[in-house]
């Protein structure tokens, strides 16, 4: 069942970590995705990473930046390139345009299904933490391709200017 509200589920079994994004995945889940990236970088016995986007109706650019961070976190630690399973043509096109093929193998169906996924709690972030995470996500995306650099440079400059002019950050 597809839900409009975004959520993140996960499972770890026999060295395979599965991260499943469902519904409308937006910047409010970036703290959860960032925490997963940090934990994956330290997970013993990790052999492969599978990101399942089959139930995602939308993934905003901030969440995409943290998906890229997850892939970067496991680079050199997994046996194979991380895999994204995506069957929504719009989401697949967005991933291709953003340059995700350099970090992920993309499939329409997973090799295996993992039925025991657990919902990950949404980790709250205050306004300044959220601004910092949005900035980090978009800087990661900008490094992935020239297209992304052109697309996100104005946003990054605006967020950096807010950082310089306002000690507590600025409005997002």
Automatic annotation (TrEMBL):
The record ties this protein, via InterPro entries, to: STAS_dom, STAS_dom_sf, UCP029548_STAS-type
Tell me, what's a Pfam family for it? STAS
Q: Where is the STAS domain?
A: 6-100
CDD domains given in the database record:
STAS_anti-anti-sigma_factors (cd07043)
Question: In its UniProt entry, what is this protein called?
Answer: STAS domain-containing protein
Q: Record the organism.
A: Candidatus Halomonas stercoripullorum
For this protein's source organism, the top of the classification is: Bacteria, Pseudomonadati, Pseudomonadota, Gammaproteobacteria, Oceanospirillales
């Amino acid at each position: 069942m597809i839900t409009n509200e975004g959520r993140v589920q996960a499972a770890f079994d026999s060295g395979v970590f599965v991260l499943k994004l469902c519904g409308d995945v937006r910047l409010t889940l970036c703290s959860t995705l960032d925490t997963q990236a940090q934990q994956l970088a330290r997970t013993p016995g990790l052999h492969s990473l599978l990101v399942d986007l089959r139930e995602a109706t939308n993934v905003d650019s901030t969440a995409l930046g943290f998906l890229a961070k997850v892939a970067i976190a496991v680079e050199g630690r997994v046996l194979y390139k991380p895999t994204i399973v995506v069957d929504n043509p719009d989401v697949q096109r967005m991933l291709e345009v953003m340059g995700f093929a350099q970090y992920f193998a993309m499939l329409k169906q997973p090799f295996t299904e993992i039925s025991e996924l657990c919902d990950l709690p949404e980790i709250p972030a205050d306004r300044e933490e959220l601004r910092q995470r949005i900035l980090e996500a978009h800087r990661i995306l900008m490094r992935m391709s020239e297209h992304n650099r052109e697309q996100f440079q104005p946003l990054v400059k605006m967020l950096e200017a807010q950082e310089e002019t306002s000690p507590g950050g600025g409005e997002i």
